[in-house]
Amino acid sequence: MTPTDVIMKKRLGHELTREEIEYFVRGSVNGDFKDYQLSALLMAICIRGMSDRETVDLTMAMAHSGEVLDLGEIDGVKVDKHSTGGVGDTTTLIVAPLVAACGVKVAKMSGRGLGFTGGTLDKLESIPGMRIDLTRDEFISAVQKNGIAVIGQTGQLAPADKTLYALRDVTATVDCLPLICSSILSKKIAAGCDAVVLDVKTGSGAIMPTLEQSIELARTMVRIGSMTGRRFSALVTDMDQPLGMYIGNALEVTEAVKALRGEAEGALLDVSLQLGAQILLSARAAKTKDEALSMLRGKLESGEGLEKLKQMIASQGGDPRIADDLSLLPQAQETIDLTAPSGGYISGMTTSEIGYAALALGAGRSSKEADIDPAVGLVMKKRIGDAVEKGEAWCTLHVNPGSRVEEAKRRLEGALSISKEKPVLRPLVYTTIEADDV
Ligand code: URA
Ligand code: CA
Predict the structure, then answer these.
(1) How close is the Cα of 182 to the center of ligand 1, in Å?
(2) Which end of the chain is more exposed for a tag (fewer CB within 10 A), N or C?
(3) What residue ranges do the domains of the chain occupy?
(4) 247-275 per-position pLDDT tens digit
(5) Atom 3 in ligand 1: residue holding the nearest Cα
(6) What is the pTM for the complete model shown?
């Protein structure tokens, strides 16, 4: 077998065998496949597609391309959640402590920001002292003791995905169902959880822009995930505007803390509770969605969710006092209000452009090597459907000397639509997909 044989077979539209898929995935790690051969095969997969059997084999080969974590020492069901990426999407920092406060073990591996989307790791690192690089033993003992730990994916986790994702990013092969599915699922499977709830975004800030494609992605991931023998389910949620009102790393930690204190209602909290309910259901910790929601609301109102977040921060070396005094988080030097050019109703926000505006201020990376500034970002004052007057502030920029303010302003101004008519609001959660639905 040579790389060319495998590329030719897929180019002609044939189904690859498990051996051929394992050969290709191994080759992506050990160098037997050159980057140009991997790229050619990725493009052939994009154009010709993959059967479910091929996608399962690809997922498992990628999961086993490096270390597969064994969480067997931790009692009970270990749950994880995964979002396909968004802007102002701080659900993990709200959901994970609430679910852990309900007694379900959260052993979570998170990623960094990708493109214009934020990453939980970058947000956690804005907390002074916080460590996201626990060893395997530290991770397991933190989950045993507190019921919660959120750490970074180590370099050993699904290394084939690192190589393949980097090539996909520069060869127009990202938005391909079997490739997205195997990329996301392989990392979740290697991270060792029993149950995973996927948050598949839809809208102008989502990997799949149309609702139809987002539902198809959710169904595919739940179907393939279930075929690997693990419990997978998915919510399809709105990303046609930023989910939370705060965008940026320390700013998103601020909003999560406010939500856990009961000081921030709205879309971010609503979606967090819906995801949390699905997690409790898949961990069999609740029998109905209503029961799950009332358990979570109880932990919110009692302050146990906030307490769990503080415990998690302290056990990972961070300063838990940030939860009582948000001024201990990094603060930007200057704020600038952006005002509406006309009056009416906010009728649209191009989420990806808002994400790129935050990136221009320094909240994300323009290149792999770039550093992020934890303090900078945006605070949105308006959501779609809100009335706005001419000259009224609709967004506040939090900036530091390194911020590219003019670019951020230009992107934000281009992202906003104002209409005379009040627009029809989209749902926050479109549908829930479980294994028996696919
Ligand atoms: N996120 C991933 O981790 N992989 C993809 O392919 C797309 C989004
Ligand atoms: Ca069902």
Answers:
(1) 9
(2) N
(3) 3-49, 78-324+430-437, 330-419
(4) 999 999 999 999 999 999 999 999 999 99
(5) 184
(6) 0.94
